[in-house]
Amino acid sequence: MTLAEPRPHHNSAAHRIPRLVLLTDEQRLPDPLPAIARLPAGSAVILRHHDWPERRQLAHSVVRLCRQKRLILLVANDWRLAAEIGADGVHLAEGLARHGLTASCRLWRRRHGALLSVAAHSALALGRAARLGADFCLLSQAFPSRSHPGKPALGPVRFAILAQSSRLPVIALGGVNRQSWGRLPKFCAHGWAAIDGLWPSK
């Protein structure tokens, strides 16, 4: 897999921004540990499993594996759980990002150098993420996706326009896999993210 070289961004956390991101999903990836174990060092995991009954227990298992594999771990929408397990940062849904960060979350980020990624679906959301102090954005949806069937996709051209306008590094999300990643114009995204599209289908 060859990834396009990212555009330079003035971001102090740039060396920690992943090129490959695995998002966990309680329906399509109920046990994420085998998939996490396959990731190359330097990749990232965003732990979602929002409604998982044993989310805290899963989080502790995931952080142990991520440390062994030298992976970056972000916990979705719960900075307190991220702090509890010693994760590398937190990922916010676009809706939550509209409300900003609590003072406690900002303090945790400053003290621990915690990363912040934000989901975005528009230029407005990309700008909001930059003002929030995010380190990078997950911009979706690039292509038609099983996660949101029937939802219009940005497509390569519109995705590239939005990504190039971003003040933050952008990770492509939504219907992205090894094949579709190559359809995006070079240099428009830092990397890509998926639930089960990181490896060829069997």
UniProtKB/TrEMBL annotation:
Under Enzyme Commission nomenclature, its number is 2.5.1.3
Going by the UniProt record, its keywords in alphabetical order are: Thiamine biosynthesis, Transferase
Q: Which GO annotations describe the biological process of this protein?
A: thiamine biosynthetic process
Tell me the lineage of the source organism. Answer: Bacteria, Pseudomonadati, Pseudomonadota, Alphaproteobacteria, Rhodospirillales
Q: Name one GO cellular component term.
A: cytoplasm
Entry's CDD domains?
TMP_TenI
This chain belongs to which protein, by name? Thiamine monophosphate synthase
Native source species: Magnetospirillum gryphiswaldense (strain DSM 6361 / JCM 21280 / NBRC 15271 / MSR-1)
InterPro entries cross-referenced by the UniProt entry: Aldolase_TIM, ThiamineP_synth_sf, ThiamineP_synth_TenI
A GO molecular function term, named singly, is: thiamine-phosphate diphosphorylase activity
> Keyword Transferase on this protein?
yes
Pfam families the record matches: TMP-TENI
Every Thiamine phosphate synthase/TenI domain range: 42-197
Q: In which pathway does it act?
A: Cofactor biosynthesis; thiamine diphosphate biosynthesis
Entries under Gene3D superfamilies matching the protein: Aldolase class I
